[in-house]
Amino acid sequence: MISYNLRCAKDHVFEAWFQNSTAYEEQIAKKAVACPSCGSKKIEKSIMAPSVAKGGNITTRGGGDSADQLTPEVMQSMLVKIRETVEENCDYVGTEFPEEARKIHYGEADHRNIYGEATEEDAKELTEEGVEFGRIPWAQRSDS
Known about the structure:
Layout: E1 2-8, E2 13-18, H1 21-29, E3 43-45, H2 72-89, E4 91-94, H3 97-105, E5 114-116, H4 120-129
Parallel strand pairs: 4-5
Antiparallel strand pairs: 1-2, 1-3
């Protein structure tokens, strides 16, 4: 089973379970998934944090289990999972990120999850305009 955070056309976010990713794709194509809040069948995946084990598989300094005690290796692994999740669920818009984010924010383009590059100045301007976005440390893949 796989769990996805989904978002409808009215920005309601909800969780749904599927047998596998193929089952998700098939049900979305058949419009068999509806928002529990408004009934909309225009559904897309929402960004979600990767599932990270909290049990004995995480090595910590000092024997605790709080996030500030995670080893650099575990943190790197988490960042790689976040990168993979973003790449799988979002459209890459490169250096056009600030403009695309504005278009979505102001309703000039359909809502969709995007990622790309922005300068410090771009990020400051987007923040001042009230455009919601997040900055993620972009971890290098171990195979690159």
